[in-house]
Amino acid sequence: MALSTAQTGESMHSSTFASRYVRTALPRFRIPEQSIPKDAAYQIINDELMLDGNPRLNLASFVTTWMEPECDKLMMAAINKNYVDMDEYPVTTELQNRCVNMIAHLFNAPIGDDETAVGVGTVGSSEAIMLAGLAFKRKWQNRRKAEGKPYDKPNIVTGANVCWEKFARYFEVELKEVKLTEGYYVMNPEKAVEMVDENTICVAAILGSTLTGEFEDVKLLNDLLVAKNAETGWDTPIHVDAASGGFIAPFIYPDLEWDFRLPLVKSINVSGHKYGLVYAGVGWVIWRNKEDLPEELIFHINYLGADQPTFTLNFSKGSNQIIAQYYQLIRLGFEGYKDIMQNCRDNATVLREGIEKTGYFDVVSKDSGVPLVAFSLKDSSRYTVFEVAESLRRFGWIVPAYTMPADAEHVAVMRVVIREDFSRGLAERLIADLTKTMADMDAHAGKKAVAAEPAKKTVREIEKEVTTYWRRLVAGKKSSLNFEFGFPFGLDRFVYGRLCQLPTIC
């Protein structure tokens, strides 16, 4: 949530359409003294919201902006259900259990007598990685205590392309980031393993970088870490942040080993509100085994009617996103998700090829990974990607521009995320609008360059200026000719400079 600052009681005027209901201005930062008609309240708010961007044209966001009307109806019907009231809403609880099982199977979690996966629904992947990180920290502390070793300096190793800073700061864990380099915008597994020490609670890999959509090499990371654990006697595990890629890789990259098939992967988070195809905000976190989630972190409450084990940072939350997630899983099935992800990938290919054909950009994202196109200007000397992004807004497109993290912050890129509701027609329209924008940017940059240069005068203007100067000399406004610098014909510096602009003299 954005952090808001309390302000004075400034008033705002009622909107045009609401003026038939309201004659006095409404306070902007204080609760009004009197009620107003519901029509007026609706119109005032609706008028202001018109200034928001169009979610379908918000190409910055990975979050779902379209669902089928039937799913919308289910969400609206459940909007007044508090998910934590499990005893009162047992069917909703059952649907969450089914979602956890489906996702666990999708990620190849072991399910049997020896190992049984567990998981929870969360408020997006932000809460999911907080819970996963907290479980790793507590398990590491318990092991260190049992060994009689210090447990006050935990650290987590991750790439600079992943945002674990909030977890590290809130839960007092040192953040050890693998810096990026130009042309390599994901965590280097070799460098990550080099940074691991006895205080490392886990290495966090990402399946779908926010910057470029790339999948990190979790298989290589696992193999290198297995070798280091064997050498040192440590037991450093892996968490996979699959917020974006968790609902992509199983469907179109089934042979890619990144999930619970790798023995050191102990937990995985995924965003249901990204490529899980649900509106914001639902996420999921799955643990390989119930032993990977320390029992002391689980709360058991019974004041709502029955024993309810919970592991969450948020107590109350809506049930509707969980219901929507279940709808999408059973409505689409494996083949339906696969078709959507392949369509997204195909549309990303069309957009990438179109952007390359403009001749202005270098594409820095890869063909595989999350379906997005990240691209940088070949020449940033006349204008920047930030100016290009701002100019695109006149067509309605919201395209983010940003710099890479350290040590690649000199690279600035734009990024277009391809979601289910971004069609091939929209991709072609964006390419056309981007082409127009670049032509305008060139023209504007040319005008600025011309304005910066001294204006060139015609031959007639120069002749007139020289004649005027001579007349002033003859009239005695200048007492003598300047021979000091040896200009020809006894002319002074000004006259000679002007005459040399005439093509027949110099």
TrEMBL record:
Catalytic reaction annotation: L-glutamate + H(+) = 4-aminobutanoate + CO2
MF (Gene Ontology): glutamate decarboxylase activity; pyridoxal phosphate binding
Keywords, ordered alphabetically: Decarboxylase, Lyase, Pyridoxal phosphate
Pfam family, one: Pyridoxal_deC
Cofactor list: pyridoxal 5'-phosphate
Enzyme Commission number(s) of this protein: 4.1.1.15
GO biological process terms held by the UniProt record: L-glutamate catabolic process
Any GO CC annotation of this UniProt entry: cytosol
InterPro entries for this protein: Glutamate_decarboxylase, PyrdxlP-dep_de-COase, PyrdxlP-dep_Trfase, PyrdxlP-dep_Trfase_major
List of residues that carry N6-(pyridoxal phosphate)lysine: 274
Family stated for the protein in its record: Belongs to the group II decarboxylase family.
PANTHER family: GLUTAMATE DECARBOXYLASE (PTHR43321:SF1)
Protein name: Glutamate decarboxylase
Species: Leersia perrieri
